[in-house]
Amino acid sequence: MNNHELKKKANEIRKGVITAVYNAQSGHPGGSLSATDILTYLYFEEMNIDPADPKKPDRDRFVLSKGHGAPGLYSALANRGYFPIKELETLRKLGSRLQGHPDMKGTPGVDMSTGSLGQGISAAAGMALSAKLSKEEYRIYALLGDGELQEGEVWEAFMFSGHHKLDNLVVIIDSNGLQIDGNVEDICSPCPIDQKLKAFKFHVILADAHDFDSLRQAFEEARMVKGMPTAIIADSVKGKNVSFMENKSSWHGKAPNEEEYRIAMEELERMGEELCQK
Fold first, then answer.
1. Does pLDDT of 75 surpass 90?
2. Burial of residue 230, with CB atoms counted within 10 A of its CB: 0-12 exposed, 13-18 middle, 19 or more buried
């Protein structure tokens, strides 16, 4: 896909996030919207996957370590064809395949169940080592939040990954600067993230999470790295492209009411129309 097509697809995924969280009246829109462009690039450009065969052995694997960003992942999966987009309206409902956090046993396209912060990246590191030991060529991508870096288990996984030279592992940090209680740096700063990751034997790339040229360059560079894992620190905006959600920690885990839903969807519809006219 070219950048214009990726932008249109990302807009549809954002509409899916808002629709899912509104219908559930529960969920996490802010971090899902900040990660949308990253997810769009991964699922529509970067990863070797096949929605018609979600478990194909040589597929690339994706782990949403920040599992509360499930609405973003689900919307990406639905738009990629893993299940009907209409199913997004069942988020967090009894009997739904789309629970509040990813479930690899119940949701097509989910490679690892996550939710407890820090555990996803640990699983991803194990998956990467497994591929190395089996001499498999698939790659593992793991998405973390910057607030998640406050978990000690994350750094154990980073130390493990660097030590084992897991160059088939790409860690993406959705660095939106906010967590449920406020600014990440005010609560327990993990900064400087880039220098710490370099000390843990990672190749570090800085990127703009909302610029597809920047994302493309970052992921292409990651493919060239040998002998060490890669970390892409992607500078992002929480609540991206919904005006009243942008840069507001209050939208970390809150559903829009009817009026807020209407405004958000109108903004995204307008953005979609503008993209179609270009």
1. yes
2. buried
Cα–Cα dist 28/72, whole Å = 9
Domain count, the chain: 1
> Rounded to 10 degrees, what is the CA torsion of 195, 67, 27, 88?
120
Quick check: helix, strand or coil at residue 62?
strand
CA distance 109 to 131: 19
For residue 234, the surrounding DSSP H or E stretch is strand 230-235
At 206 the three-state DSSP class reads strand
pTM of the model: 0.98
Question: Which residues lie closer than 8 Å to 64 by C-beta, 6 or more apart?
Answer: 70, 73, 102, 110, 112, 114, 120, 143
pLDDT at 278: 81
Q: Which domain holds residue 71?
A: 3-277
pLDDT, position 263 = 98
What is residue 28's three-state secondary structure? Answer: coil
Question: Are β-strands 203-208 and 140-145 bridged in parallel, bridged antiparallel, or unpaired?
Answer: unpaired
CATH at 85? 3.40.50.970
For the four alpha carbons of 122, 127, 132 and 138, in that order, the dihedral sign comes to negative
